[in-house]
Amino acid sequence: VLTSRVYAFRARRLHAAMERALRCKIVRVVGPVNDAMVDQWIAAVRAQAKSGMELHLLVHTNGGDSGAAVRLKHAIVDHPHDLVAHVPRFACSAGTSIVLACDRVVLGPDSVLGPVDRAWKREQADTFAVEELQAHEAGVSVDVVRARSCADEAAADLLSFRARRRAMHYRIHPGQRLRRASEVAAVDEHLVTMLVHGGWGHHWRAIFRADARGLGLDVADAQAKAGEDFAELARLTHLSLPEDQR
Questions:
Q1: Is 224 exposed, middle or buried (0-12, 13-18, 19+ CB in 10 A)?
Q2: Which segments within the chain are labelled E, that is strand?
Q3: Which residues, other chains included, contact 203 with Cβ-Cβ below 8 Å and sequence gap of 6+?
Q4: Which of 99, 117, 130, 153 could be disulfide-bonded to 85 (CB atoms 3.0-4.6 Å)?
Q5: Is 176 helix (H, G, I), strand (E, B) or coil?
Q6: pLDDT tens, position by position, for the chain (246 residues)?
Q7: What is the pTM of this model?
Q8: DSSP-assigned letter for residue 33
Q9: 222 DSSP assignment
């Protein structure tokens, strides 16, 4: 417990220094995506609504509960200022879905995202929708109805939150030139095909920076100093969490 408090103290100091240096607000989405953690993250996002400053979301997670992720995305897509996701190491599964709800994403050379197909428990193990559908195509008996339902829900979720965040972005920046609706729709449909319906591959196949750009995401390169600071803040925050939340 004492060691965790030391890490938490160091994380708070670094967090404050980074906000001063970058002239922004930072919310740390670090740890498993579950209701307890999401409650904290939502409160932190809501607290910055009147700050008047760009919000940087540090996302460092292997994912978790899709329902909890939806609750967080409801909060972030309505945030009234620019919203940037920083992924210094990895944001997989539900973590990627959170990143996709932001205006843009900053990735380092070793940062990874991943597919966002839904999963459920069966016989003490995770069962992923894409794997079920692939097994069905191979003639293996599976719960294809559940798999299709999960995939459809994940696709609708991705499309809905990206559209909502894009609408908010243009309200923040009314003078920006809008992309043609057909171009926007094509990018989002491609993301659904690749990340939800299995085009990219199995659930844990990594998506690196160049891959993310190829998928049509607005990706910036992490600057050396800032990238190191975000990675260290992620590490300290992770180590400050209770063991059952790491």
A1: exposed
A2: 25-30, 55-60, 83-87, 90-91, 104-107, 112-113, 119-122, 125-128, 219-221
A3: 93, 114, 115, 117, 119, 128, 130, 131
A4: 99
A5: coil
A6: 789 999 999 999 999 999 999 999 999 999 999 999 999 999 999 999 999 999 999 999 999 999 999 999 999 999 999 999 999 999 999 999 999 999 999 999 999 999 999 988 877 788 899 988 888 889 988 888 899 999 999 999 999 999 999 999 999 998 886 678 888 999 999 999 999 999 999 999 999 999 999 999 999 999 999 999 999 999 999 999 998 887
A7: 0.93
A8: B
A9: P
List Cβ neighbours of 34 (8 Å cut-off, separation of 6 or more): 64, 65, 68
Q: For the range 168-177, what are the long-range contacts, defined as Cβ-Cβ under 8 Å and sequence gap of 24 or more?
A: 168/77, 168/78, 168/79, 168/80, 169/82, 169/103, 172/80, 172/81, 172/82
Token reading at 27: 């919310």
Structure tokens at 38: 């999401």
Quick one: tokens of 25?
């607000």
Distance of alpha carbon 158 from alpha carbon 59, whole angstroms: 17
Instruction: Determine if residue 158 is left, alpha or beta; phi over 0 gives left, psi from -120 to 50 gives alpha, anything else beta.
Output: alpha
Q: What is the DSSP string of 150-165?
A: HHHHHHHHHHHHHHHH
- The Cα-based distances of 220 to 56, 73, 88 in angstroms read 13, 21, 12
